[in-house]
Design a protein that fits this description.
alpha+beta; Herpes Virus-1; Immunoglobulin-like; 7-stranded antiparallel sheet; 25% helix; MID2_Bbox1_Zfn; transferase; cytoplasm; coiled coil
Length: 732
Amino acid sequence: METLESELTCPICLELFEDPLLLPCAHSLCFNCAHRILVSHCSTTKPLESISAFQCPTCRYVITLNHRGLEGLKRNVTLQNIIDRFQKASLSGPNSPTESRRLQPQRPYTATISGTIAGTIGGGGGTGGGSARGSPATSSHSHPHTNHTNHINHNNANHSPAIVVKMEPRISCQFCEQDPPREAVKTCVTCEVSYCDRCLRATHPNKKPFTSHRLVEPVPDTHLRGLTCLEHENEKVNMYCLVDDQLICSLCKLVGRHREHQVSSLTDRFDKLKAYQVSPGRVSDAVMEASKTSAAQTLENNLTNLVKRNSELENQMAKLIQICQQVEVMKLRKLAQQIANCRQCLERSSALITQAEQSLKENDHARFLQSARSVAERVAMATASSQVLIPDVNLNEAFDNFALDFSREKKILEGLDYLTAPNPPSIRDELCTASHDTITVHWTSEDEFSVTSYELQYTIYTGQTNFISLYNSADSWMIVPNIKQNHYTVHGLQSGTRYIFFVKAINQAGSRNSEPARLKTNSQPFKLDPKTAHKKLRLSNDCLTMEKDESSLKKSHTPERFGGTGSYGAAGNVFIDSGCHYWEVLLGASTWYAVGVAYKSAPKNEWNGKNSSSWVFSRCNNNFMVRHDGKEMLVEASLQLRRLGVLLDYDNNSLSFHDAMNSQHIHTFEISFLLPVVPTFMIWNKSVMILSGLPVPDFVDGVASDLQEHQQQQMGLCRQESPYLTGMKTCH
């Protein structure tokens, strides 16, 4: 369940998706989170309505918007339904009553009388008359598919006719408040409710969105809703498990025993089985071949030719003719018996074909799939049984009893081949995806059918270790063996960290490695920690926005909380001690703030940057500066700065600030980190909002690479990289 919940979590707000949008790149995003991303791109010269594109926070794919903006993107209705069911299953538990109750109206039955004369009228009497009334249904809640038939027999001297009263279901309105409800005139397939004429006009006016609802003639409620899952009550079947040949629901695939099985949609399975036509020729070809009356004549001709070819062997001829005659009688007897069996099989096959053709006329997907398996098995058995109908008597036998046939052995010898190790697989960088603690690796192989399994190897890439020596060091590599598919998700990785991946293709002859791929996890996501927020700061419910509030709030004082006059700050809820992490701060209209990082031991009663344990970028009205250990330095930045990007490269000892909207570098601290650091934020007016867990943008990654190269040159560590690393791509 925890793995499922992580898959249903928004990468921005770190909560379950709410009103998710389906992006063109196949990722999803909360509508409100997408709106916040658009707001972050706004400026005084660039209003919200003019923004026509933004990047997916998961894969950085550029999403182009039409004139409708976010409303032009499709809602991920399937994902929302899965989240609703997941929340319902999480809250209720297996023993709690989770049945969703819907109105189940009474469905009285109307009687139609069809009378037939069942006996012969005796004497001089006429028809034994009178009218017959059908007894009412025993329960007003009887199932609408149940056939209620009452046989009323008037036993008199003249053998009166038996009148059969058949109770057909009366479809009642499910929206009426009166008792009993009126008879339904239409059923809405979209709403799954039957309506009378009055309720239909009240609930479905002739305007959108009701004009798109599909109305049909009244149908029973159970037929409309289809079949329900056998394991999850009130869940409709909407999938077909190909492993177990069973109808299942969405919960069976998500959290049930079918979650690892291959499934198909009902429509695909319906079309596939519907296309399977039972051909009478498949069963009867062998029958017709075996029933040819010329079989015996062919055998007699071969025997006559044999006698002519052996006329010179008079002593052996009589004996051979006797043997051949015995064989002839035996084979003719076999053929006669087989022809009789074939005729019987042909009759049974014709009946089976008729039944299969009737099944093919079923149009309800679920009911067709339910019956298709048994029909298909019977057809398969009939087809298999037809193989025994092929005559086992050689009609063209030349009686060459001493001839040896080596054709099968020759074919086997010609087909011998030596098994070789498979070709190296290829890691598909463009298909690989990452989160803050997982990486999914995809690869392809030219020898997919000769590969018995794959092995995935990975380790942290430091950028300063010789690659060949790193590969030869077995202790530093993690190995995932016996992978059967061509993709694998590695869990529990460090956030914001580069890794080297290999894929090894294995069979009985040996193994070969792929070229290395360098992939990177996303930055560590975090929120503002309410326990550290100054008492004159107000945090949003999602702890992503902080706002200056002069009205003093009653908050308990703790050592972690910012205090003192003017120290209006808050810290993130994570401490970072490795990796490369990137987050952005949406500054809005604030003109007085400070953003940076600090050790846990940094004082909470003074400005960040006034001590040796914190580093910040700050703005005070029209002045921008960086501050550390009480020392300030003015830096150049645009007065229109609305989105500040922060890159913390802990492993390479750097902290840099960027204008994320204009893709410009502002300043970089070179720091020898000694302890874990926490993101810190201070404001003196307005409000700011943070976006964390983001991939590192290309322009920021380029600046970081230049800085790293500069540091290596300064330390004398510039080296020639292994040719295996040339041209590698980084997965964000």
